[in-house]
Amino acid sequence: MSIPSSLLASESITFEGAIELTQSLLSFMEADRLLQADIQQAVTSLVKTQNGARGFFVTYLTDDRPEADHPSPGVVEALRSAPEIVAELLVKNLAMSAAMVVHHSRQQKEEMAAGSARVQERSRNLIQMLQMAACQTIASQMLESLHSANGEYEKFFRRWGYDDEQKRAIGSAVRGAIG
C-alpha cells in the first residue's frame, strides 16, 4: 500500500484545500485504507504550513467520525513534527471551543454547544497526549493574559469579544489541559 499523492499537501496549500484534503484523509482512515506511516506522512504534510494546519484542525476536530476521539499513532507523531504551529492552534482551539460552549448554551442551542464541547475535549486530549513544551508555554501565556487582562493573548481575547464567563470557561479548560 502506498499513500495516494492526493493525500499529500503542497507547501502552497490553501485553507480550503487543506479542509478538502483532510476530509479525504479521514475517509481513507475510516475505511482503514492507510498504514500509520501513511497517515503520519499525510498529516505531517498538512501541519508544516499555517493554512494546512488550520484546515486540518478545523476538519479533524469537528468531524462526526470517531477518528479524532482516539487519535492514531500516525496522527500524534505527525503533530509532534511542527510544535510551533500545532501548539498555538491546539491551545486556541481549546480556548475558542470552551468559549463557544458558553455562547451556544446561552442561546439554548444545545446541539451546537455539544459540538463545541466535543472540539474542546478533542483539543484537550491532543494537548495531553502530545506533551509538548510549546503547548505548556502558550497555555501559560494565555492564562497570564486572562489573569492580567494584558500580555501575549489579550488581543486574541479582545478580537473575539469574550466576556467574563467565557474567559472563566477558557481558563478552566486551559488549566485542565495542562494539569
Task: Please give the structural blueprint.
Elements: H1 15-30, H2 36-47, H3 50-60, H4 73-80, H5 83-106, H6 110-130, H7 133-148, H8 154-160, H9 164-178
Helix pairs in contact: 1-2, 1-3, 2-3, 2-4, 3-5, 5-6, 5-7, 5-9, 6-9, 7-9
Summarize the structure.
The chain is mostly helical and 179 residues long. 73% of the residues lie in helices and 0% in strands.
Descriptive report:
- There is one protein chain.
- With 179 residues, this protein is mainly alpha-helical.
- The chain has 9 helices and no strands.
- Helix 5 (83-106) crosses helix 7 (133-148), helix 5 packs across helix 9 and helix 7 runs antiparallel to helix 9.
- The longest helix has 24 residues, at 83-106.
- It is globular and about 50 Å long.
- The N and C termini lie far apart (40 Å).
- The mean pLDDT is 96.
Termini gap: 40 Å
The H-and-E topology, N to C, reads as HHHHHHHHH
Count of individual beta strands: 0
Counting DSSP H or I runs of 4 or more residues, the number of helices is 9
Low-confidence segments, ≥5 residues, pLDDT <50?
none
Q: Summarize the amount of helix as a percent range.
A: over 70%
- Given the C-alpha coordinates, what overall shape results? globular
Averaged pLDDT: 96
Q: Strand fraction band?
A: under 5%
Helix/strand-derived class? mainly alpha
Round the Cα radius of gyration to an integer and report it.
Answer: 16 Å
The largest sheet is:
none
Core attributes:
single chain, 179 residues, mainly alpha, 9 helices, globular
